Amino acid sequence: MYISKISIEGFRNFPQNEILFNDGVNVIIGHNNSGKTSLIKAISLVINSETPRRLELDDFSKSTTLENLQRLPAT
């Protein structure tokens, strides 16, 4: 399988981002709390059928409020 890009919206510290991958091996580096683990978790939710699909409040973007999540559910 080859992933060329991933679009993440409203997940953890990704309010709305698109990450492009290069051919071959990609290395994910960054400072603490920059989103490395969040990126891996987002990819895992899509491609790993054994990953629990239950999201918690902390999995939603920090830029949204609980009231917005309750008022505007994802379609």
UniProtKB/TrEMBL annotation:
It holds the Pfam family AAA_15. Residues 1-52 form the Endonuclease GajA/Old nuclease/RecF-like AAA domain. This is DUF2813 domain-containing protein. The lineage of its organism: Bacteria, Pseudomonadati, Bacteroidota, Flavobacteriia, Flavobacteriales.
